[in-house]
Amino acid sequence: MSDYVFPYKDASFLISKLLNFDQACLDAGFEDVNTELADAILEEAGRLGTEVFAPLNEVGDKKGATLEQDGVHETPGFSEAYRQYADNGWAALTAGEEFGGQAMPRVLGAATTEIWYSSCTALSLCPLLTTGAVEALAIHGTDELKSAYLPDMISGNWTGSMCLTEPAAGSDLAAVACKAVPEDDHFLVSGQKIYITWGDHQMTENIIHMVLARLPDAPGGVKGISLFLVPKFLLDENGRPGERNDVYCVGIEHKLGIHGSPTCTLSFGDSGGAIGYLVGQPNQGLKAMFTMMNEARQGVGIQGLGVSERSYQQAVVYAKERLQGTRSDGSRYPIFEFPDVRRMLMLMKSGTEAMRALAYLAAAESDLEHTAKDPEKAHKHALRVGLYTPIVKGWLTEFAQELTYLGTQVHGGMGYVEETGSAQFYRDARIMTIYEGTTGIQGLDLAGRKTLGDNGEALQAWLDEMQTTAEDMSTIEGLAVMADALKKAIERGVQARAFLIENGPKDRNAAGAASVNFMMLMGFLCGGWVMGQSALKATQMLEVGEGDVSFLKAKQITAQFYFEHLLPRTVSYLEMVTSGSESMMALDTEQF
Length: 592
Ligand SMILES: Cc1cc2nc3c(=O)[nH]c(=O)nc-3n(C[C@H](O)[C@H](O)[C@H](O)COP(=O)(O)OP(=O)(O)OC[C@H]3O[C@@H](n4cnc5c(N)ncnc54)[C@H](O)[C@@H]3O)c2cc1C
Hints:
The chain is of the alpha+beta class. It is 57% helix and 12% strand. The chain is built from 19 helices and 14 strands. The strands form four sheets. Strands 3, 4, 5, 6, 7, 10, 11 and 12 form an eight-stranded mixed β-sheet that branches. Strands 1-2 form a two-stranded antiparallel ribbon. A two-stranded antiparallel sheet has the order 8-9. Helix 9 packs across helix 16. The longest helix is centred in the middle third of the chain and has 37 residues, at 285-321. The protein is globular. The structure holds flavin-adenine dinucleotide. Flavin-adenine dinucleotide (FAD) binds at residues 162-165, 170-171, 195-197, 255, 263, 431, 434-435, 438, 440-441, 444.
């Protein structure tokens, strides 16, 4: 397996030039943060990723978590790596200062998150869920709960889990059946949760479960779900973990990938009830949980980026070494020289660069939402974040399937055997389109709530902004062809939006049938928009003699490749969107 190195140049270019980070930090009130600090943070994170996390990736795959008498035991080495991560302050990077966080911009959270996922996805899932739990508690918890739990969760002393899924309640959380009965100052929680990521382990002295359950008099469906905080160990009079709570891991799953991440079945209340505390209002649990899920959904999108980047790096190394061509003089040359291998590597390179730019832009929008003083502005940014979230989750993770597939394809037979590690990236990536809301759910979110929900207004504003990028590009001679291609792709986005708005209300299957294709169309369009912006910046920098010439020229070519080989996919996605639901729904049940 080759060494992993974070692509600093690309990250630094995106942060300083695409996001105009120094100015953005001033605008958002991050007064002490600037590009220089960002570079230093990324370098430090990259070192921990390369030296400490990355060597554990294969170890976690080969020796996953195990369930023992005293609970789940994680992969050897994970605990020490996690300790370094927490001790060095990475868990607290973006959390608010009130409870010990460093309040750094989410853009830096996104960039460092890529490092963790490229280095070791299975281990990095643990902090992802803690970050989501912290966010939900910080926004919806009482002051008492916040001061009791947030400092240790933010520091990484304790981890968090997210307990939604039950055997009968997966995508449809209306079916949640876990119960919570009031008793004194708390609730007794009982029932079973399945597939709980890092639901148990020995890495920290406590685990804080965020659990969806129903109060005794709760209405049916999603309107009757409440959120509870259930610690593994109850806090003693000094606020430290004391007595064991009534929640136990009763099984862990054997899975296709992420073997180092324990996927637990948790049983609550087998001995009378696990003590839990209400977070937010009764029956408003889903709202609180959505805070957590939105955070986690963008995080899962970045997992798709992280694993694709690592797969790409390894494919490049292999392609340069593997000799399969013979020249007329008998000398041999590597597969790297074959156009079709270049096609695969360029798809991977341009795809990951587009994913990275989009993930950073989404995080920057989230920063603007959270720091805006004016409620109207905050609302505007929230609407845009709402559009970004299903695309970052849905498109990045779906695209990661293709890019990690290509990573194994570049390796030929060696990609299919486990030795090279390429197969692990492909296997690890597979879950990413499933958890935190399947691709189907992301598509519905984008087409339904986020587009039909406001008659496509927020989306239209975004498409208009993309048009401005295309106009800017068309003023530069060398980018005129790309500008034209971007305008055509934007027009496809406009047509898809119009189709949904016209057909959604009159055909109940129209939005559902179009949704994933619509989300993918938007993903490839957004990729074109961000690669167009990158090409524009690179060209402007080259014109004035600023920056690393080789990097900037490569960026121009990579953007050109994206426009020629990936942006055209918007044509077929639009065709699929507008073909409607008829043939999809026409066959009778028994005809399948
Ligand atoms: C490794 C792993 C880790 C996980 N970690 C966690 C965790 O930490 N916490 C947690 O709570 N859960 C976790 N999950 C559960 C995960 O979030 C669910 O598996 C996921 O939400 C899908 O639910 P399901 O498996 O019941 O599939 P289903 O909901 O049964 O879906 C099956 C198929 O039907 C489609 N479908 C379902 N409903 C609709 C709809 N309305 N419209 C269109 N299509 C639809 C889906 O897209 C999917 O293709 C994890 C799962 C795994 C495998």
